[in-house]
């Protein structure tokens, strides 16, 4: 029995040495890892954007008979700092529906009571941002599915572009490299000084079991 075990060990050792000796830096099965593609800068929103009327959240909720409302805010790709002054120009291309700017994160963070809403009028106008600031959205809705309309917004002073990642156009590693240089901007997005997550024991067990099964 011991002799057979020794023979098996010798055979495995010889195969391993042969495999290593066949490896070469300039060939064989050891291929060099391809380098990252040329970095592509993160996208930045245009200062002039067009928005169209969409159904309101309440209209969608009535149609779907679903308690969770859909979000009727359209992203702009801009951030505004607390207590800053912003300037926006509105050009109405079609329709008579009024639009609003919504500034800030959802109000359930227990820090800001509500978002800041700014009614827009045709022409150039300036507003003072509240003490929280935040990301900027456009609410341009109607309580039906037939109303149409289009406006063109020009974001002027006070609007800070928020770079974003484009799937299929940027390499993830390069994207992360860009984000490391934007820590100051990212800190402006965070309204919670600390976040503590608590998991019940039964959820931990379920998570571990799910990872094992997958």
UniProtKB/TrEMBL annotation:
Residues 71-214 form the Peptidase M60 domain. Gene3D superfamilies: Peptidase M60, enhancin-like domain 1 (2.60.120.1250). This is Peptidase M60 domain-containing protein. Transmembrane segments: none annotated. Pfam families: M60-like_N.
């Amino acid at each position: 029995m011991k002799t057979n075990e020794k023979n098996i060990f010798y055979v495995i050792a010889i195969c391993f040495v042969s495999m290593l000796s066949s490896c070469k830096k300039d060939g064989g099965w050891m291929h060099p890892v391809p380098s990252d593609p040329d970095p592509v800068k993160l996208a930045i929103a245009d200062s002039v954007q067009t928005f169209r009327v969409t159904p309101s959240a309440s209209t969608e909720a009535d149609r779907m008979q679903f308690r969770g409302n859909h979000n009727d805010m359209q992203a702009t790709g801009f951030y505004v700092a607390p207590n800053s002054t912003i300037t926006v120009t509105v050009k109405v291309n079609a329709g008579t529906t009024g639009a609003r700017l919504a500034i800030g994160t959802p109000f359930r963070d227990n820090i800001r009571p509500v978002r800041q809403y700014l009614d827009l009028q045709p022409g150039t106008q300036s507003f003072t941002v509240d003490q929280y600031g935040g990301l900027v959205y456009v609410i341009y809705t109607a309580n039906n599915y037939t109303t149409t309309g289009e406006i063109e917004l020009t974001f002027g002073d006070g609007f800070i572009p928020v770079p974003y990642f484009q799937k299929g156009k940027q390499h993830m590693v390069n994207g992360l490299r860009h984000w490391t240089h934007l820590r100051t901007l990212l800190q402006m997005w965070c309204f919670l000084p600390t976040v503590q997550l608590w998991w019940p024991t039964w959820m931990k067990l379920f998570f571990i079991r799910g990872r094992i099964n997958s």
